[in-house]
Amino acid sequence: MLNPSAIPSPLLFLPLSNELIEAVDLIEQANSWQDKYRQIMLLGKLIPPLAAEFKHADAQVKGCESQAWLYHHRLNGQHFYLADSDARIVKGLIGLLLANCQGKTTVQIHQFDVKQYFDRLGLSGQLSPSRTNGLTALAQAIVAYTHDVST
Q: Which residues of the chain are under the pLDDT cut of 50?
């Protein structure tokens, strides 16, 4: 278990910016895989980096080929996340997941179908198997946090 001083302040868990939400719309509207890929990379740049002191092994998402960290905070029945990755494409994919889970209730998060979402965005079949596995691991970690009553 992490030392409480090594956990980000609840004040850092914020709703997503309008700019990030608009970036997700651009991915959906992009016509080619290259355009989508570029937009995903740009989306990743909109996610604030996680401070080095929070990049602990205990916060790493297992199953990701790249390093990815995820923190959770529950406030008034809504779930908020902080996440980061050492890979730009993974950070952009995290942004896509957060766009559908940040500030949502447990029921809303459980109803979120990541495969259907990525089909709709035109990303299914475009990601490598290892990237897909990492994305699934991230989505499962987001859902798992909704079961943790201590957060």
A: 1, 3-4
